[in-house]
Amino acid sequence: xxxxxxxxxxxxxxxxxxxxxxxxxxxxxxxxxxxxxxxxxxxxxxxxxxxxxxxxxxxxxxxxxxxxxxxxxxxxxxxxxxxxxxxxxxxxxxxxxxxxxxxxxxxxxxxxxxxxxxxxxxxxxxxxxxxxxxxxxxxxxxxxxxxxxxxxxxxxxxxxxxxxxxxxxxxxxxxxxxxxxxxxxxxxxxxxxxxxxxxxxxxxxxxxxxxxxxxxxxxxxxxxxxxxxxxxxxxxxxxxxxxxxxxxxxxxxxx
Amino acid sequence: xxxxxxxxxxxxxxxxxxxxxxxxxxxxxxxxxxxxxxxxxxxxxxxxxxxxxxxxxxxxxxxxxxxxxxxxxxxxxxxxxxxxxxxxxxxxxxxxxxxxxxxxxxxxxxxxxxxxxxxxxxxxxxxxxxxxxxxxxxxxxxxxxxxxxxxxxxxxxxxxxxxxxxxxxxxxxxxxxxxxxxxxxxxxxxxxxxxxxxxxxxxxxxxxxxxxxxxxxxxxxxxxxxxxxxxxxxxxxxxxxxxxxxxxxxxxxxxxxxxxxxxxxxxxxxxxxxxx
Lengths: 255, 276
Hints:
The complex is a heterodimer.
Chain A: H1 2-27, H2 36-48, E1 53-55, E2 58-59, H3 61-92, H4 94-107, H5 112-123, H6 126-151, H7 155-163, H8 168-206, H9 211-220, H10 224-254
Antiparallel strand pairs in A: 1-2
Helix pairs in contact in A: 2-10, 3-4, 3-6, 3-8, 5-6, 6-8, 8-9, 8-10, 9-10
Chain B: E1 4-13, E2 16-26, E3 31-35, H1 42-50, E4 57-62, E5 65-66, E6 74-77, H2 89-100, H3 106-119, H4 135-148, E7 153-157, H5 165-181, E8 187-192, H6 195-201, E9 204-207, E10 220-221, H7 232-235, H8 237-255, H9 267-275
Parallel strand pairs in B: 3-8, 3-9, 6-7, 7-8
Antiparallel strand pairs in B: 1-2, 1-4, 4-5, 9-10
Helix pairs in contact in B: 2-3, 2-4, 3-4, 4-5
């Protein structure tokens, strides 16, 4: 308990340092940067009434974040739905691996900003285009970690499957899947982080309501303090998501 | 007619010749042990006999049929337990039973698994995961799993190698009891580096020479009455003679190779140097 309090106090001190630096910069070096106080004043209606809906792009910050979260959840599930089986295939078949690994390595570093226009051409609507981009960009850690997990199944377990003459289905459910699960979850966690990273870009370019869309709109309306509000929100939500996945992962490893 | 027969088996890994000219015949229901020093190719020999590894030369016959894969009538116990850590003791055994008797019901599978876990004295720990069990208990689960499929052939790859001396002794007795209580006669091949263990359990013992190109010594029959107590080896003259004979084979096996291995001082010569 005491060590928890200490680390909490230290973390708070760190945040305070950054806010002080921000305040110092806002007044002098960067005249257009709203000060922390001004940001708070202008963001108050969004934070204190987080579920308020006053207009299409004038909504409480939690409401905005929830739109983004729903979009991220859809894209993320699409990503793991495709990525997990793909990882299993790559991990279990050398032929498949040698055939598709080079392609994957080429697709992996492509930015969401590059995929989104393609999605818009393919689907002609912003929502499916955004999901397409999120899924395509966030899939890779799941693919690669699952593949790695399958490759790391200890020889002992494979021997057991062999000498017990397990059926392919039993082999998959009783040996492969449980042995790979911890690796898969590491992949899911990284994928979720990436999906949240992509959402802002996707919403900015498509102009759909959500944290990223709001950020871009407020930039165009010259309300700079709201940009900072969005940045902080994106960071906090991303942090919370990662922690939640981390908890699930730890629970899984302990079991 | 032998139940298991190894004919002129040879095995090399690349340029390294492990086994050469290995011949062994095991009768139905017989318990044969192969004793050898570590890294002499014992485990390779067992894996070849079980059909898990292909020999480069020679053939393995099981009931006169050439062995190409692990037989459905066979069971194996590995040195490192090889239990699935996400399944309980019961589930580990039940998984084997389900695969061996697909036509039976789930209740029958469970009853069979429970019966064999009780036979190895784990009736109270069936719900525990392997990580909650001691090394000796884990190997008991592995033994229960091996017997629960009612095999006609049993392969034991240094099953007690990772256990402390006391647990080892108890489990040897347990294994002897399981073998004699089995539903049908079990032809058993045990691989071990422990002469006493081999004498306690076997009908016949062969010594595997030191590699490369290790080959088998003539078989030494163990004509001692069963059940055999662990202290047999302290006072029974017959047992002592068998042990002396085996020790002789083992020494001969390692001596014959020694001149080839240069700059390898004996262990006794090494000790004072390390102590100083």
